[in-house]
Write the structure tokens for this entry.
Amino acid sequence: MGEMEEDRTRDYSYDAAAKAFVSLKGVMAVAGETYIPEFSGMSRKEIERMLGDEPRLKSQNVKFRNMIGGSVELDNLFLLNTPEGPASLFVNVETERRQWRLEPLINRALVYISAVMFNQMESGGDSQKYEKVKNVYAFWILKNPPAAYRNRDLVYEFRGRDIGGCRDLPVCGTVRLIVICLGDPMENRDGISLPLRMFDAAMAGNYTKEERLEMLEEQGMDINELLEKDIDSLSKRELEMVEAVLDAKAEEREKYIEHTASMVMAEMECWDVSAEKAVDNLRIDPEIRGKVLDVVRSRKER
């Protein structure tokens, strides 16, 4: 019984729900329309048709080992059809909920990309084998990015530079890293790319479930539309996991606010200060300050 409960908790975690969400073909079509050069000029519906008949992409959980015993594990590795041919592009999608500094995260992403590149190779080193290496693009969706990068999408490509300064060298299209930084509630969504708005509405946790569904619908991303082809092919459990991504952070946020309110009340009692002063002393995030104070006042009135 204990093992079953542990498995259920794992299946319904934010990570599992996020994985179910990003594997939807409609979600990848929105991301591909903006970030994947192979789909340039194609409509979202054309990209969906290109990605195959199934409503969801087949996601692999892949583990690569190196020569000294270390390993990296990829949450999602998709092999996509493109206009260049069937199964012609690898796409790695990672949803990261912890806070990372950007520099080590980029290094981590490049290690993952390199592992996929290396593991395509057969033995030998003739040029034809290298010409057949498939492009590898990586998407990292950050729930808690550094403050300076919130609500931004960053694209990294390899560019050459002629030391003599005589000519521009082409971008190396073999690898591309897309870092989608969620974060603060978006009061003004003008100028924000559609994929960033989509992931913000679905996964950032800044809104109620009703607000998220409404924002997705405004962007042509109604969750019911995304799932309309899935109803027969997905189990009820899998559908609930996709829905869970809309609820996960809201529940976490409420628990965090309740916990923070308890810290504030302990600070008030210890130092005999007002709630406002206790919040200042603890340097509570301004984004939740008002809600924490509301909880504190409510508890004091009981």
